[in-house]
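Case study.
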Amino acid sequence: MTTTPDLIEDLARNLQPVRPLQKPLTRAILWLVLAMIVLGLLAISQGVRPDLWLKLQQADFSLSLAGMALTGILAACSAFMVSLPDRSRLWLALPIPSFLLWIGNIGYQCATHWVKIDANGVSSGETLRCLATLVLSSLPLSLMLLLMLRHAALLRPLQVALMGSLAVSALTAAALTTFHVLDASAIILIWNFGTTFAFVGAGWLSNRRIFNLVAPRLRSL
Amino acid sequence: MRPGHTSGFRPKLTVVGAGAPMQAPQDFDWAILMARGQEGDQAAYRRLLIEITPYLRALAARQLFNAADIEDGVQDILLTLHTIRHTYDKSRPFGPWLATIAQRRLIDRLRKTSRNRKRETTLTEDHEQFVDGNGRDEPMVQPRSLAAAIASLPVAQQQAIHLLKLQELSLNEAALKTGMSVGALKIATHRAMKSLRALLTPGRDQ
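After joint prediction, the assembly is written out as follows.
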């Protein structure tokens, strides 16, 4: 058993210089740029939906897309802020307005014109392509975020995991909406909120375990 | 213009901010020491850790009660601070940064101890050995009746029981002492135990 003075002596004697982290917003922007690159590459390889320009002129479509993108951006900022010990937890509230815009818009669309899945149903090809987009966008985004926020494992793993999952799922939902023709309301709901709940739920359940994989190791006593 | 200046009356600033001059310079010092520590200045870092330890100990003592737990908590905080020292931004105050790390680590420690406590069961009287034989599967045998029972066995079996069970020799040692083979000893012991069980268990002797 090491005594505290011994521990202090040990830590001081083996002290290595470290480079302080960049400002959290700078790091959030860096992650968002990387995310844009990933999504841009995906857009090039998978192609955007053919009726994207037409759809963007519809207020409800562009509003919900803006809601998703904003939620992704703000949740990322919030995650980087909350991951630091000296920042207020009120940053957790940052993505709430845009999240409400996103949910409210989809809810409104569903209430006003519920589009049924037609007789042809959903082609399994489209579902598979959606799944591919989902994995190809969320996996690299999550991994980058996890590495950039690994110090949070020792502090607020749950809050940071929740905000990170929200950021990843919102950007993934935006990608799904721009790349794939999802017109049936049920499909939009499933893909948007299914992914969000899956990510946030996974973040909730596994925040400690996942973070511990990449957490900076405490030196053993 | 502030009214205090125009009238020549100076408000009692020192009373209002009485706590501030005590806190702020210390936080400022710690911030400087931490910034130097980030650059690798060992002396500054050592001074910082030594100076914050009493403060951490006071924080830990509020949540943990056992002296050893408190010291463990303090060391955990120091190690965490060391591990994530790159997250400190020298343009911001040091106090809140340190306080959050301390709080998070102490809460984690409390959760862990309460989780362990849930898994553990305190031993009660029921878990203790019964000296008087109550509650055992087999009734306690009186030493005298055991000796009598052993004496009633054939000589070879008596020897086996004495050496292997009462003196707790190994089979090889007993074989050397008696000149019997290991196999013969095993058989003798087995038979002796069987007869003893029959002799000493009431209702089984027929």
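Observations recorded in class. Chain B has two domains: 21-117, 143-200. Residues 1-23 of chain B have pLDDT under 50 and may be disordered. We will return to this complex in the next lecture.
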